[in-house]
Amino acid sequence: MSTTFDPRSSSHSIPRGNHPGRTAADAARAWREHLPKALRQRIVSRGLIAFGIYFTLFHACFVGSFLPPTASWRFLCIVLQPLLIGGLFVVGHDAAHHSLVPQGWLNGLLGRLALLPAWHPYTSWCYSHNTLHHGGTNLRGRHPDFVPLTKAEYDALPLWRRAVERVYRSWWGVASSYVFDFFLGYLIFPRGKRSPPDRVAFRLDRMLVLAYLAMQALGGMWLSQFTPNPMMNPGLHVFTVVMIPWASWIWFMGVMSFIQHTHPTMAWYDNRQEWSYYHVQLKSTTHVVLPWPIESLLNNITDHAAHHLDPTIPLYHLPESQRLLEEDCPEHAVVVHWTPAQYLETCRICKLYDFERHCWTDFAGRPTSEMGLPDRCVDAAKGSR
Predict the structure, then answer these.
(1) How far apart are CA 221 and CA 217, in angstroms?
(2) DSSP code per residue over 176-215
(3) CA 159 and chain centroid, separation
(4) DSSP characters for 225-240?
(5) Mean of pLDDT over the chain
(6) Torsions phi, psi of 337, nearest 5?
(7) Alpha carbon of 344 to those of 44, 294, 347: distances in Å?
(8) What is the pLDDT of residues 92-130, one digit of tens each?
(9) Residue 173: pLDDT above 50?
């Protein structure tokens, strides 16, 4: 029988306040140890409702991009699709962690279906995200996306590849790094160590994504026959409905993935001996506060530090878990109130990384952040949030 978590009943269970001298790893362990068990409870009805709402609304909007009598309604359906892909993707992300519902087989089924509109094969996503990203957050050689180069590595690149790196580290080109390096390189065409161990399941999941894309194209061509007063030819209409929402979503996904582990106060590592799981999950993972109601529409994925410290927390318990984390670890928790100016500043500062001095640099190798980032307290960097 499911129970509903009441924050009032557990507000005293986690020690509160600033604790000078307490390490980030100790703070993270204490938070996880005292986290109420109810916040890890997976509830079948809530998982199914979250999946059902987003899956139904996305496909209703897909159909609505063709059939309404006015172009304005069809346009609205196209505009809504990127947000729905994002919300459904987070449901699939939870299922991949087996934290959406209690049943493992049901998580696998819902995860595969939820990730289809994002065109992310379930098996390669689980390996690259759960194993590599969570298992080696901000550790070069392990972390799969947005790993910063050093000045020496950048200088050794041919001119064309330096130009690519400059695009990848620009405010407008961050998403291209997600698409070409991560989506294509890890999820669709992985090679060597990037490949998931279960190659058969991966190939089947990739075929499932391809079949879904074909269904979108063929379904769109069929629906376009019934579009009243069409504004474009059927082929262009289908291309617009299928590609524009996905491209818009993946650009946003790239930006979000970048800022969740890249910040002027956050360290990266190339030495496993320096790297500590609990330390990194707390101090190199942000809680990005987005304008209302985007956070809620994205199923709380921006409550990211709590998720990284304990991936078993379902998406519907993340806001309360993140609140408790920030109350317990204010000296270490990184909260970024997103604004265009803040995002531009992060992109300006975080070009290359000096792993010896532990600071960000520009492409000329000049430090752009303070040095010794692993040892810095968040409170000392409030001005750069």
Answers:
(1) 6
(2) HHIIIIIIIIIIIS--GGGS-S-HHHHHHHHHHHHHHHHH
(3) 31
(4) GG-SS-SS-HHHHHHH
(5) 92
(6) -85, 105
(7) 41, 20, 5
(8) 999 999 999 999 999 999 999 999 999 999 999 999 999
(9) yes
